[in-house]
Amino acid sequence: MASESSPLLAYRLLGEEGVALPANGAGGPGGASARKLSTFLGVVVPTVLSMFSIVVFLRIAGYAEDYTTGAVMNFASVFAVLFNGCTGIMAGANMSGELKDPSRAIPLGTIVAVAYTFFVYVLLFFLSSFTCDRTLLQEDYGFFRAISLWPPLVLIGIYATALSASMSSLIGASRILHALARDDLFGVILAPAKVVSRGGNPWAAVLYSWGLVQLVLLAGKLNTLAAVVTVFYLVAYAAVDLSCLSLEWASAPNFRPTFSLFSWHTCLLGVASCLLMMFLISPGAAGGSLLLMGLLAALLTARGGPSSWGYVSQALLFHQVRKYLLRLDVRKDHVKFWRPQLLLLVGNPRGALPLLRLANQLKKGGLYVLGHVTLGDLDSLPSDPVQPQYGAWLSLVDRAQVKAFVDLTLSPSVRQGAQHLLRISGLGGMKPNTLVLGFYDDAPPQDHFLTDPAFSEPADSTREGSSPALSTLFPPPRAPGSPRALNPQDYVATVADALKMNKNVVLARASGALPPERLSRGSGGTSQLHHVDVWPLNLLRPRGGPGYVDVCGLFLLQMATILGMVPAWHSARLRIFLCLGPREAPGAAEGRLRALLSQLRIRAEVQEVVWGEGAGAGEPEAEEEGDFVNSGRGDAEAEALARSANALVRAQQGRGTGGGPGGPEGGDAEGPITALTFLYLPRPPADPARYPRYLALLETLTRDLGPTLLVHGVTPVTCTDL
Question: Residue 404, Cβ neighbours under 10 Å: how many?
């Protein structure tokens, strides 16, 4: 901002942010000046309007015909002409860069000037009416020359007044244009207005203002110009009053008016008075000025870059969000309004960019938090290393175009950090209910920043505020074979911790192989048809039949349905697979499932499959839910079961046993292919010593399946009750 950027007051008046002067600077008015000016105007404007209304209404019965136009005068036309005589309230703010003490001079000068002008005008009105005939006043607008002691004095006064007003307008308007040009809000249109003299005077902006004035003067009639000018003045004053009203309602702690008569009532009266008089004077001009202000506000919002200005809209948003968060009572939650609220734990976003976008699609209007754990102990560090990282993560969110919050923590281990984030992320009724993790495997990390157009270096270098480049703010991907921050034991323990906290869990594998068009923000129109496969049965502990309607199975169906509601996935077909038991007749389980889907209003294709390996495993009696090795089976038998389930899923993907989306035969399949597979995630075993074996079975189950989501739900998400 320029040191004389106080004229940006008018710039903010045109924007959606209201009045917000910059912090104290060289020659600027400072925050105190902004507050005092705003509060004074909240009282001055309605006061001036009321006084002029009284004066004009005293003569309401005597409106006559204007001998220059032939039109009969009325209250609005007289007000439009007279109001210009008491304007200039913003002149002090526009010239605040030349004031020695603007914080004191602007409010004091404004009130004194308005009071003095009003007193002189009222005195002139009464003295003229007491000494001059009514006919003279109606027929000769220059009657002062005839009754003056020295007639040239009247002309001198007219020229002096016009010169003073025009110079004030040129100085104020030129500095506003100069500040707008310095902010590059209108590009090359105002680029020449940046030129200043050695003393800092924006002479190019003065020429701009002079040219605009000459265009306005082509209207030719003073009364016509007076009405238009009055409407624009009233728009500006209404915006000032609205800003004061917004700050008062937002309860901003730093908004401390020193004017004792200030209140939100006076602000509201000022806004209403200005809008009322605008439409009484000229409905067309009033509507046009409001439309112009709206267009300028949209333009400023779209083109406005980072600045040090304070935005009243942020104060209003904070006030409203806090109020409604308090009303979002978790005790009043109902399953009908359930939505996924995700916490995605990310180690390095370079390798997790596709998962980051997939989670953004799965949230479906819910809360989405990006979590990251920095390893360390604050006791042994001179300062918190987490706080400087927020800027990079927020830039990541902006560049990836996801609607997510960022929550970072410092912890000696990733597991403890994950516990912290699961407990404290969110606020009030908006807290994560689902933990999302990338899969723990030996796949070499990929750097998606190098292939994603949004993170290319040219884009980084052309955006304002992006230095250093975003790609330099995150470390390179982990080299294959290098040690990890999280070991397999802690990884499974983190999953178990989330389930103990009653959080749903989603493990994502091979999300980098997702079709790019499915991760875009478009409509998903593509010539390649895709399937989304859902296996709502625990394939490491198959039972069939009633097992499809448990809480976890319904959670799988819900998540797959939510993904299908995203525009990029509209064209994908949802398929649900049923594994028949050894003594179960074909069609029975399918009928029950179709009835359930009809109740839940889920459109999907249901397919029954026969699984020989799992057919005999349907003994539901003496198993713990957490015992993933069914009925005490040995490791070899559990491994064989996982391989058999993997072959079954791959066969249903239409790729045989040698491929899958990530396998060697993935590109040879014809017709629709499976873009994403939802699998039932078994609970981790109760014995921590068996965690590595559990993870190995999950790896076998999902090997070469392509993009896969292992899901375990612990909370009800559907309701069929009326």
Answer: 21
Task: Show the tokens assigned to 445.
Answer: 């990390």
User: What are 629's two structure tokens?
Assistant: 């090795």
Domains of the chain: 8-315 (no CATH), 332-509 (3.40.50), 522-722 (no CATH)
CA-CA distance, 311 to 247, in Å (whole number)?
10
Pick out the chain residues at pLDDT < 70.
Answer: 1-61, 67-69, 84-98, 219-224, 258-260, 303-310, 457-469, 522-527, 542-549, 581-585, 612-633, 654-671, 720-722
Distance CA 2, CA 179 (A): 7
Expressed in angstroms, the distance from the first to the final Cα of the chain is: 59
CB neighbour list of residue 640: distance below 8 Å, 6 or more residues apart = 613
Angle at 113 between CA 109 and CA 117, to 5 degrees: 180
Among the listed residues 198, 201, 202, 200, the one whose alpha carbon sits nearest the alpha carbon of residue 177: 202
For the stretch 497-510, pLDDT in tens is: 999 999 999 999 99
In DSSP terms, 405 is beta-bridged to 369
As a whole number of angstroms, the distance between CA 548 and CA 576 comes to 10
HSE of 594, CA atoms in CB hemisphere, 13 A: 9
The pLDDT of residue 665 is 41
Model-level pTM? 0.69
- DSSP β-ladder status, 605-610 and 573-580: parallel
Residue 442 buriedness (CB in 10 A; 0-12 / 13-18 / 19+): exposed
Report the pLDDT value the prediction gives residue 304, as an integer from 0 to 100.
Answer: 64
Best CA proximity match to 33, nearest among 46, 20, 45:
20
Question: What's the Rg (C-alpha) of the chain?
Answer: 36
Angle at 403 between CA 397 and CA 406, to 5 degrees: 55
Please write the tens of the pLDDT for every residue from 304-319.
Answer: 665 666 677 778 888 8
**Which DSSP letter does residue 24 get?**
S
Q: At what angle do helices 551-564 and 349-362 cross, to 10 degrees?
A: 100
**Cβ of 458: how many Cβ atoms within 10 Å?**
9
Residue that has been written with the tokens 């069929």 in this structure? 720
Sorted by sequence, the CB contacts under 8 Å of residue 465 that are 6+ apart come out as 305, 306
The reported pLDDT for the residue numbered 620 is 43
Rounded distance between C-alpha atoms, residue 593 and residue 526, angstroms = 30
pLDDT for residue 5? 33
CA distances from 323 to 204, 326, 652 (A): 48, 5, 51
Question: What is the per-residue pLDDT for 4?
Answer: 34
